[in-house]
Amino acid sequence: MKNSCPAEAFFISRSCGVCFYLPFLVASMLNSPRFASCVLSVCSPFLLMGVARAQFGGQHVITTAAAGATSVYATDLDGDGDADVLSASGSDGQIAWYENLGGGAFGGQQVITTAADGAKSVYAADLDGDGDADVLSASNMDDKIAWYENLGGGAFGVQQVITTAVDAATSVYATDLDGDGDADVLSASSLDNKIAWYENLGGGAFGVQQVLTAAANGAQSVYATDIDGDGDADVLSASYLDGKIAWYENLGGGVFGAQQVITTAADGAWSVYATDLDGDGDADVLSASFWDNKIAWYENLGSGAFGAQQVITTAVDEAHSVYATDLDGDGDADVLSASFLDAKIAWYENLGSGAFGSQQVITTAADWATSVYATDLDGDGDADVLSASWFDNKIACYENQMGPCSPLGDDAFEDNDTCATPSAVAEGAHMDLFVSKSDPDYYSLTVADGATLTVDVFFATANGDLDAMLYESGLCTDDQDSGCDSTLACGYSGSDNESLSWTNVTGADVDCVLRVHVWPGTPLNCNTYDLVLAVAGPGGPVLFCNPANPHSGGAFATLAASDLSGPGLYHLEASNGPEDQFGYFLVSAGFNDLGVSVSDGRLCLQAPIGRYSPAAGGALNSIGRFDVGGVFQNLGGTSSVGSGFDVPSTLPDPPGGVIGAGDTWHFQLWYRDGVGSNFSDGVSVTF
Questions:
Q1: CA 154 remoteness from chain centre
Q2: Which of 12, 285, 358, 619 has the most C-beta neighbours closer than 10 Å?
């Protein structure tokens, strides 16, 4: 260990026998009850218990054996497709990893090295071109940038030193800087104020240090991405002694331009990151600075120019780390922060156009939080959060509960998890159902002789592909990888919504089991879906004008009807429509299957035609809009299930009157489609 510590290094307290960050001591030592508590208790550990907001689960501790944890990162290290976790810890000079066992569980600490004295930063990238992620470290007590070869199967080679020409190394990153297709290495070091890079020569060899600048006073963080839109990776730095966020243009061929200062108003700049924050396609810059307790961003104005500092929050006591990714699933990058003295991990919702919401605390139980990162850890398609915290030696994660299916859990049909335990299901639309790889759904129903069953499955997230299989009840199988074997019908497309149809020509009623499951090979473990069932023929409604004209989305809207739901005589459903388009149902005593062209659609009803429109009012108002899954959601309060329409006994005028027993009426849906309009197929119902 070094005899004297720089401000960003560790200060050795003989009273406690542990290391403190000197910036904390300078600002807080005389007045801090926490420091006094440390001295009086001879470093008795204590925790500030945090309460996570509803969007994230509670703190799940991966390890408390990362002594003086300084950095956390995650990527697939063992080649099994999920993100394993890496840590750097300064007090034990350790780089370690933790195997992702699936479902949010992690294995014990596996030490890669203890020869990174004062380990400050960890990162992973394929450095030797063999397709797996090798590990990088920066350590400030031995002035070292080093890498560790991934040997496969979770094993790593010995430390290979890239350079020791970094005085108090603080940060490491890797990406292709010279355009030759391999990952070059970047470093920041604070006592020599240096940002430098090292060319990847192939085969695990690296070139000599090439200095971008020695004018990043107290350099703490380095990152690289395309800043000026020319297709190569430019470099960013944060330096705490000059409060500076700066960038360095990649001029090609491994040559970089002079330092270009974005701001000097990040007092105690400790972390820098960049991604598109305002949706204009270029990389904006984020900073965390500890002296002014600030998380801020800087708009990329194009051509290498940046706007003024825009503060996201100052409610971070000694901000140490900043990161950004989509946390709430709305397609833009939200911001994460780790702050030291308040033990806080927090996030800030991106509201669009460069605006951010207020601080939302994930935890205050990351004691002296030093690092934050986010990626999908449990395979549900959303970004979970990781933290490193120095005082409690902790690497921890927080489950994101804002994903496509994690908030929902069991639905009303559970437990219907096997062929032996199906739940009875009626015709009509069944909304917001939940299914996972470990929790398939089975439904029982009877298809009358001569009837045709149509099943539509509309699901929320394409990379959580669902399949639908219809079996005769005695031939049902629980094997989710059986394809269409032994089925009466199946929906088995690669990533689209599923639809199947089966006509019973056996001469007798058939008891069936419908299975909806997550395809085993899809990335997501779970999904939500809407299930629409329709029976046509004997004992059920009959479709006409089918297929209808396609709408702007390429599909055609279709109707289903059931007498088994809703307070009206019949319940109508419409599905497969264009997202966000309005419409309402029509009714007639007659139809012509050929129909007539009206706008973009085909009207098959014959005059007089009744309109269940807002003008009809009350129970006759079927106004609604197609949702993102193509299901028609009722906006008039005339559906007992939220979607479709409960047909009342009274008819709109025209044709007027009431629906009587034995009457047959015919229905279509009119809907807006961009600048034009269209019609669904039709359904005939005998009441």
A1: 26
A2: 285
Burial (CB < 10 A; 0-12, 13-18, 19+), residue 117, is middle
Q: Does an H or E element contain 371, and which?
A: strand 369-375
- CA 350-464-424 angle, 5° bins: 120
- What local confidence, expressed as pLDDT, does residue 87 receive? 98
Q: Where are the alpha helices (DSSP H) in 46-167?
A: none
Is this model's pTM higher than 0.90 or not?
no
**CA–CA separation, 450 and 426 (whole Å):** 18
The DSSP letter of residue 365 is -
Q: CB–CB of 116/162 below 8 Å?
A: no
Amino acid identity, position 472 = E
> Collapsing DSSP states into helix, strand and coil, what is residue 73?
strand
Neighbours of 559 (CB within 10 A): 28
pLDDT, tens digit, for every residue of 545-558? 988 999 998 889 98
Please state, in angstroms and rounded to a whole number, the distance separating the CA atoms of residues 342 and 363: 10
C-alpha to C-alpha distance for 177 and 252, rounded to whole angstroms = 8
Cα-Cα-Cα-Cα dihedral sign, residues 40, 45, 51, 53: positive
Cβ atoms of 241 and 259 closer than 8 Å: no
Span 413-442, pLDDT tens digits: 988 889 999 999 987 778 888 888 878 999
What spatial distance separates the first Cα and last Cα of the chain, rounded to whole Å?
87
**pLDDT (mean) for 64-82:** 96
Distance between CA atoms of residues 645 and 624, nearest Å: 9
Q: What type of residue is 338?
A: A
Question: Do 568 and 649 form a contact (C-beta atoms < 8 A)?
Answer: yes
Tokens representing 255 are 């040559």
Nearest to 637 by CA among 649, 650, 648: 648
Cα–Cα distance, 673 to 554 (Å, whole number):
11
CA distances from 623 to 582, 586, 614, 639 (A): 7, 11, 6, 10
User: In angstroms, rounded to a whole number, what is the distance separating the alpha carbons of residues 19 and 33?
Assistant: 17
Structure tokens at 217: 């006073």
Tokens of 542: 């009959």
Picking from 500, 497, 410, the residue whose alpha carbon sits closest to that of residue 457 is: 497
Whether residue 50 contacts residue 344, with contact meaning beta carbons closer than 8 Å, is answered with yes
Q: DSSP character for 623?
A: -
Q: What is the pLDDT of residues 580-610, one digit of tens each?
A: 999 999 999 999 888 899 999 999 999 999 9
CA distance 441 to 202: 50
Q: Are 139 and 93 in contact (CB under 8 A)?
A: yes
> DSSP readout, 96-128?
EEEEEEETTEEEEEEEEES--TTEEEEEEE-SS
Which of 225, 258, 260 lies closest to 246 in space, CA to CA? 260
What's the rounded Cα separation, in Å, for the pair 545 and 42? 82
Angstrom distance (rounded) from CA 365 to CA 52: 9
User: Which residues, in sequence order, are CB contacts of 655 under 8 Å at separation 6+?
Assistant: 587, 588, 589, 608, 609, 610
CA angle 319, 322, 328 (to 5 degrees): 125
d(CA 403, CA 434): 13
Tokens of 309: 């500092």
